[in-house]
């Protein structure tokens, strides 16, 4: 039985305002599809964060639909689970997709009754599936699938006044413990103890604490294939993250991306191998002085520049873009220069310009709002500002009129 494990596609993601949809499409066409065709897995697993936003735009849905259609055409059975970035919008057609061996798991049913997969030779594996769900839905699911009157469930909710995802998982394991078939493979979207974070993960925070599940909790499983952490890694002898398909931050761009390949024979994991895949774009951090960078050869990579200049440079971003057309981020090595450049570039210039144009406070605030929010101010907010401005001016008068 051959398993290919991928995760955290984040279709529709933007990086510092740059949409990556074309790069993602290119990655699937030139890299991912050829690999899948080559490996021909008995099942492809995608452990969550399929799309980047719960409210995907049409472009993103189109790419997802193209990927699904390709998997269907090539007859690659595929199992998707929801991550914290996904929403049920993408599982709307799950009953139709299921008819074509594309499974979208958005509830806890297959934790109770494992998802059984059998290859042509009769090798069987059992997936216990834990998609990411908001707490209230998690609770609802437990009551639906295990019964509101179930004694273990009732006892649990009577005892717990404050719910933690961890506790709910513990409850699930307690409910499932007599229903273990082997090899038992857990699929989930969460952080586990000893896993390495990249900083790209939007944390599954509860009361300000990232929920990190203890390894001990899953000791009954033969192995775990997980999503959420963006680095490809093997956390313990049986816990695997395939990470995101592409680098989604400058810090992560130095680490290798890819998928995990597994082979199971007679219920035993006989092969585990990371398959590295090159990203469809180059990402790097460049450090230097402005005068050197502006005279360097043209570079199309996605770039973050760190300027070593101690004195702020005028409009460095716009000027360096002529050499680095995909410049995404610019900062100064010395944070003091950064602050003075910000005030020089924005506050002073904008303000002086406004003075030249003789804008009053109201107009100036409108301009400021537009600059920061990149949209016109709403009437309600503008009215509130005018009210406070009036109060402020009246207070000023009072102060002035004092002897
Ligand atoms: Mn993710």
UniProtKB/TrEMBL annotation:
GO biological process: DNA recombination; DNA replication
Name listed for the protein in its UniProt record: Nuclease SbcCD subunit D
Pfam families: Metallophos, SbcD_C
Job of this protein: SbcCD cleaves DNA hairpin structures. These structures can inhibit DNA replication and are intermediates in certain DNA recombination reactions. The complex acts as a 3'->5' double strand exonuclease that can open hairpins. It also has a 5' single-strand endonuclease activity.
Sorted UniProt keywords: DNA recombination, DNA replication, Endonuclease, Exonuclease, Hydrolase, Nuclease
Species name: Thermodesulfobacterium geofontis (strain OPF15)
Source taxonomy: Bacteria, Pseudomonadati, Thermodesulfobacteriota, Thermodesulfobacteria, Thermodesulfobacteriales
InterPro entries: Calcineurin-like_PHP, DNA_Repair-Maintenance_Comp, Metallo-depent_PP-like, SbcD, SbcD_C
GO molecular function annotations of the record: 3'-5' exonuclease activity; endonuclease activity
Domain Calcineurin-like phosphoesterase: 1-231
Quaternary structure note: Heterodimer of SbcC and SbcD.
UniProt cross-references to PANTHER family, sorted A to Z: COMPONENT OF ATP-DEPENDENT DSDNA EXONUCLEASE, NUCLEASE SBCCD SUBUNIT D
Presence of the UniProt keyword Hydrolase in the record: yes
Family as reported in the entry's similarity comment: Belongs to the SbcD family.
């Amino acid at each position: 039985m051959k398993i290919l494990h991928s995760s955290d596609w984040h279709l529709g993601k933007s990086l510092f305002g740059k949409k990556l949809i074309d790069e993602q499409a290119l990655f699937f066409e030139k890299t991912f599809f050829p690999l899948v065709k080559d490996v021909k897995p008995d099942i492809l697993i995608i452990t969550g964060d399929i799309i980047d936003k719960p409210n995907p735009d049409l472009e993103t849905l189109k790419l997802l639909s193209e990927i699904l259609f390709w998997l269907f055409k090539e007859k690659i059975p595929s199992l998707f689970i929801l991550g914290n970035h996904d929403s049920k919008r993408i599982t709307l057609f799950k009953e139709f997709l299921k008819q074509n061996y594309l499974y979208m798991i958005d509830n806890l049913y297959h934790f109770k009754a494992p998802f059984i997969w059998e290859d042509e030779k009769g090798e069987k594996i059992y997936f216990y599936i834990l998609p990411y769900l908001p707490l209230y839905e998690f609770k609802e699911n437990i009551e639906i699938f295990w019964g509101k009157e179930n004694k273990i469930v009732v006892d649990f909710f009577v005892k717990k006044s404050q719910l933690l995802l961890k506790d709910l998982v513990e409850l699930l394991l307690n409910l499932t413990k007599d229903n273990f078939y082997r090899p038992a493979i857990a699929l989930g979207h969460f952080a586990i103890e000893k896993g390495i974070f990249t900083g790209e993960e939007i944390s599954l925070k509860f009361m300000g604490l990232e929920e990190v599940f203890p390894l001990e909790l899953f000791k009954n499983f033969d192995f775990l294939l997980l999503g959420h952490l963006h680095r490809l890694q093997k956390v313990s002898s049986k816990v695997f993250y395939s990470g995101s398909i592409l680098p989604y931050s400058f810090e992560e761009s130095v680490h290798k991306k890819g998928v995990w390949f597994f082979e199971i024979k007679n219920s035993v994991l006989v092969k585990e191998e990371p398959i590295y895949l090159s990203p469809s774009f180059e990402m790097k951090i460049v450090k230097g002085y402005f005068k050197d960078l502006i005279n360097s050869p043209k570079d199309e990579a996605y770039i973050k520049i760190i300027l070593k200049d101690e004195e702020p440079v005028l409009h460095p971003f716009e000027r360096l873009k002529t050499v680095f057309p995909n410049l995404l981020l610019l900062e100064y090595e010395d944070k003091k220069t950064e602050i003075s450049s910000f005030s020089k570039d924005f506050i002073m210039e904008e303000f002086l310009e406004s003075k030249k144009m003789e804008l009053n406070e109201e107009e100036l605030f409108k301009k400021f709002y537009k600059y920061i929010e990149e949209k016109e101010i709403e009437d309600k907010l503008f009215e509130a500002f005018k009210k406070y401005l009036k109060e402020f001016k009246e207070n000023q008068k009072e102060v002035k009129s004092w002897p």
